[in-house]
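Reviewers of the previous submission asked for a worked example of the structure-prediction workflow described in the proposal, so we include one complete record here. The input consisted solely of the amino acid sequence. No template or homolog information was supplied to the procedure at any stage.
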Amino acid sequence: MSEKDNLKPHYAGHRARLRERFVKAGANSLPDYELIELLLFGAMPRRDVKPIAKALLNKFGSLGGVLDGDVKALADVEGMGEVAAINLKTVREAAVRMLGQEIMNKPVLENWQALVDYCRTSMGGNKKEQFRILFLNKKNALIADELQQDGTIDHTPVYPREVIKRALDLGASALILVHNHPSGDTKPSKADIDMTMEIQDAGLKLGIELHDHIIVSSVGHTSFKNEGLL
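From that input alone, the workflow returned the following structure tokens.
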């Protein structure tokens, strides 16, 4: 071994081997902490990121939990910092945007799993409730995807009159409602059911159909239609 090799940091060879495994064997050959390592390489060119990756998984519980973490919480993990945290969040936002583009301007009822994947990825891991409205045209193609203001950990204010007014403004013929339950339990509450019925009734009077209301979390989803609630 040359003197130059002795001067290389101990993790240099590990980085090269990890990149080679990713290229040759694919991402499925890597455990979650090694995928996180790969994501951190660019933000931390001169650090051993393995212990940082493991610390992230330990704090957030899973790869999804890491990517769903907010910038401040990620940056507070020892060794991270804001630049590395933004690096991780960029990956998540790119994935959400890609999934959203897969369903935009397409008949969503024929691409239902893609819709559910998008909703779970974009909202399922959020720590506060959010309410999303998907607006469809007469062919049930998605023409607009709008997210209301964040709520609290267990409530988002929704005003049926405003939902229907926005549908009319967009020329929408149908709606799909989506919101998340940070608790992980996607069972609809009485308030969820009452609000859904109000929107359905208001829409029917103006020729706007409510196709479904989906509640998502990091571990699953519930469809009002599948549950016989619509």
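The CA atoms of residues 158 and 195 lie 8 Å apart. We consider this example representative of the routine output the project will generate in years two and three.
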